[in-house]
Amino acid sequence: MKKLVLALTLLSILPIMAEGSMNIVFVDMNELFNNYYKKGSSEDKIKEQEAIFKDYHASLFEQAKELQSKGKKCRELSQNIALSNVEREKNKKEFEEASARLSAKTREIKDYEKETQEKLAKLYMETRNELVEEISGKLKEIAKEESYDLILDVSGVSYNNKIRNVVYYDKTKDITEKVLEILNKDAEKSEEKND
């Protein structure tokens, strides 16, 4: 379906392109995204959230280690013939309780790991989408100001990931650097505000 839409779109603009009246420029969205100053602060927020998750994960892991150590000690005492039957039985019950709590803690750790991975992936995608929307919005503004009819992304690859969507383009029509300058002109103001 996407190929059909793309083909129809290209067919509709071919007559205009043949006349030479269409003002087409190119950008590298990967370069814009990777060099946009806001990407760094977004990555910092994700790393901060990841650190919070890791700290809690470490505390869960420490609790599991304590339960494992206690269980091991109780198991050894439950098998120690130097102790009375009552003491061995008491330690056996404590070992079973510690083992059950350790199993529950292990499940809690696995669930927490899965949950945090999903949350981090979602946070990354939300953050990425926000930045891409900002960049796209700025591209639309620039297109209107400069009277560009079409801006194509040269960084993408086709569905089979073997052929670039844009196979050839005139490098003099690449406005990536110009757009980066515009996107990053507020970087100094933002840094001063954060200091």
Structural account:
This protein is mainly alpha-helical and 195 residues long. Helix content is 75%, strand content 4%. The chain has a two-stranded parallel ribbon. Helix 2 (29-35) runs parallel beside helix 5 (176-184). It is elongated.
Question: Which SSEs are present, and which pair or pack?
Answer:
Layout: H1 2-19, E1 24-27, H2 29-35, H3 37-78, H4 85-146, E2 150-153, H5 176-184, H6 187-194
Helix pairs in contact: 2-5, 3-4
Shape: elongated
**How would you write the strand order of the largest sheet?**
1-2
Question: What percent of the residues sit in helical stretches (DSSP H or I)?
Answer: over 70%
Count of DSSP H/I helices: 6
Taking Cα atoms only, what radius of gyration do you get, to the nearest Å? 30 Å
Order of helices and strands: HEHHHEHH
The low-pLDDT segments are none
Oligomeric grouping of the chains: single chain
Structural class: mainly alpha
Main beta sheet: strand number and arrangement?
A: 2 strands, parallel
Q: What is the strand content?
A: under 5%
Distance between the termini: 50 Å
